[in-house]
Amino acid sequence: MGKHRSESRHLSLGVAGLAVVLALWCSGDTAGTPAAPTAGATTHVSDAPGLEARIPDAQGSESRVPDDAAAPTARAAAPGDAASPASGAREPSASPVPSHSPRSSGPATSPPAGAPVSPPSRLVVERIGLDQDLMQLGLRPDHTLEVPPEGPGSPAGWYRGSPAPGRPGPAVVLGHVNATGGGPGVFADLHALTPGDEVRVQRADGTQALFRVTHAERYAKDAFPTMRVYGNTADPQLRLITCDGYDPTTGSFDENLVVYATLVDT
């Protein structure tokens, strides 16, 4: 089987005038002898080396939750942390998730500008059996983005520098596919989402935002469309991000998988 080795990628993000570095990776088994994913598997969120771009000030910047909002934050990944591919994982397909949009049930109305914002606390995606707490991701002292823990059962994380789900702009949620010690990560089945699937984001105050998947795209790590993924949008949107494109000959991952969703109810 092909060997799965660590890979670091870096992507500079600017949200509301703040440039940050997205530093997530697809890493190998700590034992050094992991099995290669089999067909259909995705991998966890990956950085793209040398891929840097700035994003202009985000629309609806008032929607972001302050750094001291009451919600759990991620720990910075410790040096040497690594995740192993799921023992029953499938090698990713080369074909992208269908990119056509579903029938619209009409635009949803986001909370008015300046309305109180409650941070997201839970992510529910019935299509793939996902119902799990969300953590908040901030910045480390070196301005790289914190990443969710890689242990079994670890949640996905919402980057609190992006709009809160349900506010104008793209809310960014990142998740691993593999967990340390083997087994799937929180976004192991993200590749199975198709247009029309619903994504519910529950908030700490008991409210929720309902999104509907419009399409998904796979992007080569050296041609990541930063503005398309993280750029301003007038309406509330959601980005679920992991990585894909496992290459058994190199043991690395060459693509990012981005699922796009639009708010339909709140």
Structure in words:
This protein has 266 residues and is mostly beta strands. The chain contains 1 helix and 13 strands, in the order E-E-E-E-E-E-E-E-E-E-E-H-E-E. It is globular. 48% of the residues are buried.
Provide tags for this entry.
single chain; 266 residues; mainly beta; Sortase, Chain: A; eight-stranded mixed barrel; three-stranded mixed sheet; 1 helix; 13 strands; 2% helix
Q: Which blocks of ≥5 consecutive residues have pLDDT under 50? A: 1-25, 27-106
Helix content: under 10%
Spatial sequence of strands, sheet with the most strands? 6-7-8-9-12-13-11-10
CATH level 3 topology: Sortase, Chain: A
Rg from alpha-carbon coordinates: 17 Å
How many β-strands, per DSSP? 13
What number of structural domains do the residues give? Answer: 1
CATH superfamily: Sortase
| H/E element order | EEEEEEEEEEEHEE
Which helices and strands, and how do they pair?
Elements: E1 7-8, E2 11-15, E3 18-22, E4 25-26, E5 51-52, E6 120-125, E7 130-137, E8 156-159, E9 169-174, E10 198-203, E11 208-220, H1 226-230, E12 236-247, E13 252-265
Parallel strand pairs: 2-5, 7-8, 9-12
Antiparallel strand pairs: 1-4, 2-3, 6-7, 6-10, 8-9, 10-11, 11-13, 12-13
Short description:
With 266 residues, the chain is mainly beta. The chain is 2% helix and 32% strand.
